[in-house]
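INFO  loader      accepted 1 record
INFO  loader      residues=430
INFO  predictor   begin
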Amino acid sequence: MANFIEELKWRGMLHDITPGTEKQLEKEMTTAYVGIDPTADSLHIGHLVSVMMLKHFQACGHKPIVLVGGATGMIGDPSGKSLERNLLDEPTLRRNQEALKAQLSRLIDFTSGAANSAEMVNNYDWMKEQSFLGFIRDIGKLITVNYMMAKDSVKKRFSGEGEGMSFTEFTYQLVQGFDFLTLFETKNCKVQMGGSDQWGNITTGTELIRRKTGQEAYAVTCPLIKKADGTKFGKTESGNVWLDARYTSPYKFYQFWLNVSDEDARNYIRIFTMLDRATIETLTAEHDAAPHLRILQKKLAEEVTCMVHSREEYEKAVDASAILFGAGTSDALKNMDENTLLQVFEGVPQFEVSREELKNGVPFSELFTARAKVFASKGELRRLVQGGGIALNKEKVTDAEAAVTETALIAGKYMLVQKGKKNYFFVKAV
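INFO  predictor   done
INFO  writer      dumping tokens
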């Protein structure tokens, strides 16, 4: 088995670790889990760090478990938050769980039948039968209030951040600790992993296991990822970057990684890809020698987009990006799906023309001056055509009077007029 802790260290993915963890992992194939609350029916890239921990854990020969927090999702984790969040009902949580498993199955091996194949569990399955009296008798007595109050996530809320903390949220660390105890007893799960903001909750679990069973369990956390400028990773002007194509298209997903800064690219390529150390060091050296080529960003965007979506979707995103920056072909443009087409040309000047008129054909010069005022005059348009400066759907226009018909419509609705290298105009037939 490869050394998991060393793998995390060189990748910059290790924040805290309990004593004895590395020795345990060297001794035998070990089971570890990460908890994910199913508060949405898609993961976003903020979840990817802990998912990558599980992916590396499995690659090093160990067994990962994904715990979907059906029960804890009904409570709300106080860690890193100043307000109590909205709670979800069971049908919504179950629906979200199924969607998350489908996503995770593309990232982690659940189905090979290998000894270290991943499993998914839902803590609602053991919590729903747990009575309040049984819980406070069997679990509550093992952890003191003093111990719980000493946790940073609790202290911050009691020291004036937000509106205080409900009893429900105060008990969260006990409920999460009970999850760890349950998996320890039923799945021989000895390690819990998560972000550094989870350290308090995770170590409550290791303490609960020690007091209940007299045995050792372990904790590993990774740093919370931030951008080089200190702002929150994974957020854009339009919100989260989701793994589900319904919420963030593969094109926009690809663009997110392609547009990170040089400094962030150096960090992210270690954290969010499975590329080995030698490959990353070579890529970094090549990037540093020619930063304008953005070698790290391109490789990062390729690896993560292929991993989360597919190579086919990655190639479509590359084609779409090339079209916007002048290198794409008319075939690539015609093959682009409508959603991606609209996103690529978001913000480009838009015009409308009559679909009915296109049935009989309209001269190019007439259509894009009188019908859609892309050009100020027919004289300007003709001069540009003579100079080879106009393209329709990425094909150079050589005859200003050629008829434009419905056959020119992309996705049955759109035309792309290009003036010079960088000026685009989007025309819709209505």
